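Data availability (excerpt). The following record was deposited with the supplementary files.
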Amino acid sequence: MSEAVSIELPYAVLLQGDLNVPRGARGIVAFAHGSGSGRHSPRNRFVAEKLNEAGLATLLMDLLTEEEGRIDEMTGELRFDIHLLSRRTARVVEWIAAQPNLQDFPCGLFGASTGAAAALVAAASLPADAVRAVVSRGGRPDLAAQFLCKVTCPVLLVVGGNDDLVIGLNEEAKERLKCPSQLVIVPGATHLFEEPGALEKVAELAAGWFLRHLAAEGLERA
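Predicted structure:
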C-alpha cells in the first residue's frame, strides 16, 4: 500500500510523494520525473508497480511544488531546469538515507526524459555510494553532459527504436560515461513507449537492472 510522504526543503518548499515498501524489499528506487510529469504519471506508476512486484521499494516524488507545476504548465521552463531538478533529486536521496526504515536500502534512481538528466547529475554530485544504479527511460542524458564522466554507478539507458533523435543523444552519452553502462533499444517503441508491450519491456529491463545492482547488495548485507 502506498504511503504519502512530504520532504521539506529550504525556503518553505514542500515536495509530495508516494512511498511503497513491499514486504521483504531489498532496495529502493526513487523516480525523477521530467517534461511536465509528476508522481501521478501513469507510465512511471506502472513501472513502479512492476518494481514493487519484483521486491523493490519505490518512491514517486513530485520534484516541483503545486505552484511551480502550474507555472511550468504555462511556460515549460522548469522541466528543463536540470540544476533545480537534480538538486531536488539529490535531496530525495538524502531524505531516504535519513529515514530509519529506509536507510539500510541501497538506493537507485529511475529517470524519464529530462528527469533522467536530473538523476544522472544527482548521482554524480552525491557521495559515491549514495546512488547504486540509474535507469533512464527515453532520457535526455545530453542535458547532463558535463557530469556524465563523474557518474560511478551502473547506468542503463533505454530508448525506443523509433525515437531517432533520442537514440543518437543516448549513444553519445554512453560514450561519455566512464561507469559500467548499457544501451538498450526497444524495437518499434516511440518516445513515450505507448506501443503494446513497450512499457512492459521497460519495466522488465529496469527491474532486472535494479535487482542486479541493488537487491544483490541488500542480500549481502542481510
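Summary of structural features: The mean pLDDT is 91.
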